[in-house]
Design a protein that fits this description.
The structure holds two protein chains of two kinds. Chain A is mainly alpha-helical. Chain A has a domain at 66-240 and 261-273: Orthogonal Bundle (MetI-like fold). Chain A is 76% helix and 0% strand. Chain A has 13 helices and no strands. The longest helix of chain A has 34 residues, at 240-273. Chain A is globular, with a radius of gyration of 23 Å. Chain B is mainly alpha-helical. Chain B has a single domain (71-294), classed as MetI-like (MetI-like fold, Orthogonal Bundle), CATH 1.10.3720. Chain B is 71% helix and 0% strand. Chain B is globular and about 75 Å long. The two termini of chain B are 39 Å apart. The chains are: A mainly alpha, B mainly alpha. Chains A and B meet through α1, α2, α4, α5 and α6 of A and α2, α4, α5, α6 and α7 of B.
Chain lengths: 275, 300
């Protein structure tokens, strides 16, 4: 067998594995387009016979998805901005120096990364209620989610800063730049891509955040789309086509960003996550 | 004052500001809650004493109460099953896929990347999709299993106490496979090719090469991936909220969901924080193992 044919067969197997793995995603899209009676057909149809394209506008209106997605976007943008502002400098210092204090700080940051949100929410909620932060529930969620995701951001961005040669910064200092100038004009632009990709990853995580929002935000008009989806799925629900349409509207923008940036996301993830 | 300012702009002061502000933020929103959690686990906390710091101290009563409840041990057993089976499943499938994708063929790295779609999706969306796939009468999983002849009767994944935990386990394995695969692929890429060539020249079979080269060379990666798996599995909350809500009758409840339920469904914050303290201790031990196993990696 020639190499060309081996490659083709391997490619076919890879595509088959990917199709098998991503079947749940396919099933979400297909179900959303089926009619109310078609979803309960036996055997289930793999393609919708009469695609209901109107379902998306219907569910958007029915559940008030515009508001939910807007709230998700506010929480995700706030989290991303706060994380990037606080985390970038931290990652830079942790990448530039090697001594015992840096190791201790890095260890603490890694440790904070692992605390499960559903366990941290109890003390956070009680603390927030004592400091009156529950009156600003979206801000409270942004603060809590930022504390949760910042360690991950620091680890990823630190790996990026480590690939920026220190000599460039020293040269800038010799040329008369201040530390701030060298950081702002030399180091940051060189690390821009890594920071951007990590920030987008943080945005995507915060966009889907659930535990903190569910526990902290009581007012429906302030809740994000994840809480809205949870409320849509009652225990005895039968409107699966509508629920899958909701899920489709919610997840498609995230998947689009992911497919566009896939290569960068994968390489950013692999360079940072294991170090 | 001037020296302070120029230090901020030019000297160590710059670095110290950059690193202290975020660390103080993390301390305020992760460190303090951690301590507060332990404090609350020794207090009586309910809706009425929520707003005050002066709550009655009860010693170890919360711990005694939690561990003498009849549902505690079944839930702990569920947590153990959930963690062990999820990690084993994610690791085995992820490792298999990682090995397959190390075969160099055009498009391999792009298709491998597509798998990560499962990882970027919101947990609630993953939960909603699996909730529908696992549905008893009309779920597509039952249909597939029946057409393959594996089962003859529909399994009621969400409402049968014997199966509810396994439904969530299946969804969680699906969710985590891609992440395992990517991390393991990084480890595999780090093994020098010439080791395999030398072994092949010496007449080692593929099976022997796997056991004598791949596995030993992957030891620290495998350690890191499994402890990361443990950490992420103990963080899994969304799938429980979306698929079974821990039910029916706690048959699919696990510690991290139970802790939340105690606080936000029963409003028994003391009990919620007691369970949290116990589970956080478990997570911290796991992450110490993780940090130790990654320390041997090459820092780049």
């Amino acid at each position: 067998m020639t190499e060309k044919w081996t490659n083709r067969i391997l490619l076919l197997v890879a595509l088959a594995l990917a199709a098998l793995y991503l079947f749940p995603l396919y099933w979400m899209y297909v179900t959303s387009l089926k009619t109310g009676s078609e979803i309960f057909a036996t055997p289930p149809g793999m393609v919708p016979t009469n695609p209901q394209w109107g379902v998306f506008a219907y569910v958007w209106e029915l559940r008030g998805m515009g508001r939910f997605l807007w709230n998700s976007a506010i929480i995700a943008s706030g989290t991303m901005a706060l994380t990037a502002i606080l985390g970038t400098g931290c990652a830079y210092v942790l990448a530039r120096y090697r001594n015992i204090w840096i190791d201790v700080a890095l260890f603490l940051v890694l440790m904070l990364q692992v605390l499960p949100a559903s366990l941290m929410i109890t003390p956070l909620f009680v603390g927030f209620s004592q400091f009156g932060l529950l009156n600003h529930p979206q801000l409270a969620v942004i603060l809590a989610v930022t504390a949760k995701v910042m360690p991950f951001f620091v680890v990823l961005v630190r790996a990026t800063f480590m690939s920026v040669p220190g000599e460039l910064e020293e040269a800038a200092l010799v040329d008369g730049n201040s530390r701030i100038g060298a950081f702002w004009f030399i180091v940051l632009p060189l690390a821009r891509n890594g920071i951007l990709v990590s920030a987008i990853l943080i945005f995507m995580q915060a966009f889907g955040e659930f535990v903190y929002s569910k526990s902290i935000i009581q007012a429906v008009e302030l809740q994000p789309a994840s809480v809205g989806l949870n409320a849509f799925m009652g225990p005895n629900t039968t409107e699966w086509n509508n629920i899958m349409a909701y899920a489709t509207i919610y997840v498609t923008p995230i998947l689009a960003i992911f497919v566009i940036l896939q290569r960068r996301i994968v390489s950013g993830l692999t360079s940072g996550a294991l170090k | 004052m001037n020296r302070l300012l120029s230090g901020l702009r030019d000297g160590k002061g710059f670095d110290i500001v950059l690193v202290t502000v975020p660390l103080l933020f993390l301390f305020a929103l992760s460190g303090l809650p951690l301590i507060y959690n332990v404090v609350m686990s020794f207090q009586e906390v309910d809706m009425f004493s929520l707003g005050t710091f002066a709550r009655p101290w009860v010693g170890f009563n919360n711990y005694i109460a939690v561990f003498s409840q009849p549902e505690t041990w079944p839930i702990m057993r569920n947590t153990l099953v959930f963690v062990v089976v999820s990690i084993a499943g994610q690791f085995a499938i992820g490792f298999g896929l990682a090995l397959f994708f190390t075969l160099k063929f055009p498009g391999a790295s792009y298709i491998r990347g597509l798998f990560l779609a499962s990882w970027v999706m919101p947990g609630l969306v993953v939960g909603a999709i699996w909730n529908w796939i696992l549905a008893g009468d009309f779920g597509v999983l039952n249909y597939i299993l029946k057409s393959l002849g594996i089962i003859s009767e529909n399994i009621f994944w969400r409402s049968d106490t014997a199966w509810s935990l396994w439904g969530v386990v299946i969804a969680n394995i699906w969710n985590g496979v891609a992440f395992n695969m990517i991390l393991l692929a990084v480890g595999l890429a780090g093994i020098p090719r010439d080791l395999y060539e030398a072994a092949a020249l010496d007449g080692a079979t593929a099976w022997q090469r796997f056991w004598t080269i791949t596995l030993p060379m992957m030891r620290s990666t495998i350690g890191a991936v499994i402890s990361l798996g443990l950490i992420f599995t103990l963080q899994q909350f969304d799938l429980f909220a979306a698929i079974t809500s821990g039910g029916p009758a706690n048959s699919s409840n696990v510690a991290q969901y139970w802790a939340w339920e105690q606080s936000f469904r029963q409003y028994d914050f003391a009990k919620g924080s007691t369970i949290s303290v116990v589970m956080i201790a478990v997570v911290l031990v796991a992450s110490i193992i993780y940090v130790r196993s990654t320390r041997h990696e090459v820092r780049g």
